[in-house]
Amino acid sequence: MLRQKNNKIEIIWGIRHLYEVQEYLIQFCLTGRLQAKSKEMKEIISKITNQAGEDFNNRIADWFEKDSKLIVCRQVKKIGEIKIEEQKGKPLGDIDVLVADPKKLQ
Predict the structure, then answer these.
(1) What is the pLDDT of residues 34-64, one digit of tens each?
(2) pTM (2 decimals)?
(3) Side-chain-facing half-sphere of 16: CA atoms under 13 Å
């Protein structure tokens, strides 16, 4: 932080600035504004973004699971024997959270 005092510019720094910049740097990395070049930094950013996505999916699933009438499945790769594929042998990935209302299935 800069301040002017007696016609001089002073730089003020405190430990709280370290905590403030921590969140800023994390967001800087996660939003893609900082392009990682090293393998280690790419791995860290990947780990953080994957965890954030997993946390979000879990919050959504947890919210739906509050309704005991609903069926909630996480990271669904197939439904019964049917794989989630674009075409045979070419998977699309998984459904992060699948919610079904048994009343609507009949």
Answers:
(1) 788 899 988 988 888 889 899 999 999 999 9
(2) 0.64
(3) 2
